[in-house]
Write a structure and sequence with these properties.
- It is an enzyme of class 1 (oxidoreductase).
- The structure is a single chain.
- This protein is an alpha+beta fold and 200 residues long.
- It has a single domain, classed as Electron Transport, Fmn-binding Protein, Chain A (Pnp Oxidase, Chain A), CATH 2.30.110.10.
- Helix content is 28%, strand content 36%.
- It contains five helices and eight strands, in the order H-E-E-E-H-E-E-H-H-H-E-E-E.
- Strands 1-2-3-6-5-4 form a six-stranded antiparallel barrel.
- A hairpin with a 7-residue loop joins strand 6 and strand 7.
- Helix 4 packs across helix 5.
- The chain binds flavin mononucleotide.
- The site of flavin mononucleotide (FMN) has 16 residues, from strand 2, strand 3 and helix 2.
């Protein structure tokens, strides 16, 4: 008999993640959807940075970035990533590890179109992760992109989404006396989830 109750209850880890994020949206002062995204480079050196989680789908998590950035290249080479989200006011974290593919279709176009014009032109102007001689050079590049693309720029081919399909999802919540609760969901070969409570 499982003792997975309360905030951990349910058969769908994506539904639990959505519910926790909704609580965080009410509790956190800023960026409740920020995730620390970890990748590995070709020398196996780990890398990590914050990005914003934009969609929790039926079986995947989606974020957006520049495909030529360091993270974009690392994901292209390995096909894998992990992330953690931590909410200080809720004292909870979610950890996710899995396989990553590009989202560069209509969904990416729609998300790109939903962003402010400055952000859309900024995406065109940024050679993300490459050396930049000055802030003025970036501002000038964005202005130039405005002249080239006008007020309705198309999504740049080098910018779009990544979809992470988890092999593991772990939910962690702070417990009294440091007896925290941890539940790890592991995807089986038949695509069902095995759920284990772990020592904290
Ligand atoms: C709260 C927060 C949210 C961010 N969201 C994104 C994002 O959604 N996409 C993105 O490309 N960079 C985002 N960044 C910037 C990244 O952390 C990082 O500086 C940039 O993507 C370059 O990373 P890379 O050189 O490892 O590819 C965010 C930074 C912070 C602090």
């Amino acid at each position: 008999m499982s003792d997975r109750t309360g905030i951990f209850a349910g058969d769908d880890p994506f539904a639990i993640a959505r519910a926790w994020l909704a609580e965080a949206e009410a509790a956190e002062p800023n960026d409740p959807n920020a995730i620390a995204l970890a990748t590995v480079d070709p020398d196996w050196l780990p890398d990590v940075r914050m990005v914003l989680l934009k969609e929790i789908e039926a079986d995947a998590f989606v974020f957006y970035t520049n495909y030529d950035s360091a993270k974009g290249r690392q994901i292209a080479a390995s096909g894998k990533a992990a992330f953690v989200m931590h909410w200080k006011s809720l004292r909870r974290q979610i950890r996710v590890r899995g396989d990553v593919t590009r989202e560069e279709g209509a969904q990416a176009d729609a998300y790109y179109a939903s962003r402010s014009l400055q952000s859309r032109l900024g995406a065109w102007a940024s050679k993300q992760s490459q050396p930049l001689e000055s802030r003025a050079a970036l501002v000038a590049a964005a202005a130039r992109q405005g002249l080239v693309h006008g007020t309705n720029p198309a999504r740049p081919p080098f910018w779009g989404g990544f979809r992470l399909r988890p092999l593991q999802i772990e939910f962690w919540s702070d417990g009294a006396f440091r007896l925290h609760d941890r539940f790890r969901w592991t995807r089986q070969a038949d695509r069902r989830w095995q759920v284990d409570r772990l020592y904290p």
